[in-house]
Design goal:
The protein is an alpha/beta fold. Helices cover 20% and strands 29% of the residues. It has one domain: Glutaconate Coenzyme A-transferase (3-Layer(aba) Sandwich).
Amino acid sequence: MNKVHPDAKSALKDVTDGATILAGGFGLCGIPENCIAALRELGPKNLTFVSNNCGVDDFGLGILLNNKQIAKMISSYVGENKEFERQYLTGELEVELTPQGTLAERLRAGGAGIPAFFTPTGVGTVISEGGLPLKYGPGGKPIKTSDPKEVRQFDGREYVLEPAITGDFAIVKAWKGDRYGNLVYRHTAMNFNPMMAAAARITIAEVEELVEVGTLDPDHIHTPGIFVHRIVKGIGYEKRIERRTIRKN
């Protein structure tokens, strides 16, 4: 029952090339910083990452992108990372863009054992009709595009069928956790971390505070330890804030 590992590198040592990893948080906030740094050091390649976005060039998942460890991203927002843009447009990176709420629900469904669901989001767009560039080739021409998805009517309204998402590993960040893996999130860490923790075959959680079993109020636990396989006491958090830059003409 003691799921504590001495550090993130130890907890992630079995991540292999080609793995699919779910990464919680919101770009720069509530992200598993220690786990990301450990993956950078361990060096697995050709990874598929599912995350709201890819951080920025020098922080968050951006450090793995710069190290050419990510082959595919499934994301909803990618606007603050210039290296992401460069790799996508030059064909080095495959990108599956998904509406933000749909991404969250695809992950929640994966954790709940629901294979797919219908949503009105994206009906009548390239999300449902297909043709969204997934990967570019030489000369900036798409060599891989999204397929059309099933659309069905319910009570006179059209809905598009979206598949669930699961992963080989999930790396999540929590505020507090105990050695059984029970987790409590705080503020921005509630974005994506809870549903990702439930949607992976192996979930690694890093926490700001590692407490004794019985310390956490059962009514306040967000992710029960049954979903968490390994837990690490995180250190050295930067907790950066994304800032919007307004350009003057």
